[in-house]
Amino acid sequence: MRRTDRAITDPAEMRAILEKADACHLALAQDNEPYLVTMNFGLKPGEPLVIYFHAAHEGKKIAWLRRNPTVCFGADVDHALLLSPTGTSCGCSMRFRSVVGTGQVAFVTDRAEKEAALTAIMQHYTETAHPAFADEMLARTTILRLDVQAITAKQRP
Question: Which CATH number fits domain 4-156: 3.40.50.11270, 1.10.3660.10, 2.30.110.10, 3.40.50.2000?
């Protein structure tokens, strides 16, 4: 990170950024071609940091993850334009907090973990404490577990 004075090193602050974010960007790669998708997500409680996603059983993202489960992810929050005191555009900046990390994606097949993952996703976006999931819905939903291996965070206060 070039601006080490803006680094966030506290794991709790990094997690707080993810808890506040409304989307996670997942970067995939295959045959020297990048692919970025924006996804809804949920966090597994506790440590180590695990991020859950849901998806359909088929599609480009799923095909690519089956071939290469190594991913990069990112999320950002607290955006605000900082205008130059002189009013010139060259002096503008942007306030933000962000995380970027890498990890391995695994396909979750265990029913209990699928339910826990979907619960984490629902709790990230709603006040639903204990959602119920029909067997039919669980059967048609792919759950992806991102086991985070490295993470950094940055802010512009």
Answer: 2.30.110.10
